[in-house]
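Troubleshooting log. The previous structure file for this entry was overwritten by mistake, so regenerating from the original sequence record. Sequence copied from the archived sheet and checked twice against the printout by T.R.
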Amino acid sequence: MAASPDRIMKRERVVVVVAAVVVLAVFAGAAWAAGRAPESAEPAAASASASPAPSLQKLAAVVEQTPAAGTSESPAAKPTPEPTPVAPADQAEPVALSAPTPTPRSSSTPAARATASATTPTPKPTKTRKPTRTPTPTPKPTRTASAVPTAAHLVVKGKVADTAYFTLRQLKKLRTVSGDYFSRGKEPEPTATNAFVGVRLTDILKAAGVKQTASRVAILAADDYSASFSMRQVGADYLDETRPGVTLPMIIAWSEDGVASTGDHPFRLVMGQAVEGDYNRQYWVRSVISITVL
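Regenerated output below.
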């Protein structure tokens, strides 16, 4: 025999009430378990116990919206909701609330700072590329003035590479010239011919590094007597009026008639005649101490 609509409605209400009771029992058990947790977990339990309130309100709304007996709606129009099985209150699992993990505070003690600095890896220094060194240019050797010798010598200075000193030994390393030189002068010997050995004055100037801008040469004696010649006169060839066709260069001699000159200044300037009848002996300079290129 089919149940009446009133009985169906009563049954549904009973099911809803039972379900509400079960839900309340579950939340009551959860609240009882939360009461045994540490005090620090009370906020979490309170939030859990407070959450059923919206569910109870929804159940009450469902009960109120259930149509009463004698309404015009047919029970077949709405399907009968099946009750959801709910576990008994004594079998509900308690909610496990874990205590909050304390956050460790950073230690500010010297030992802690030393430990922290010891554990901090030291950054490795970055290797920097060394700049390439520019090689220092090697200075070219320059000619320096010769040291003043202790032996008898003459000095060449002025427009030359460097002041140079020539001893008898150094002069003999140059090309040697020997010849008979005729001279005309005053009394007591108006004329004479003497054999001299020496070197060309031009060779001495070349050895000293005479400059192209040189124009004159001054020969100075120990007694301050001097004679000056142009560069053309220094390099010219001179004659002997007694021997036509013979040419004689201007020389610095260190030997006369087979006898070597001695003393502190053993050098003598000797030259031939520029023309026949020339009084050339006046240009000869004894005891030469310096040759200045102007």
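Residues 241 and 277 are 7 Å apart (CA to CA). Archived copy saved in two places this time.
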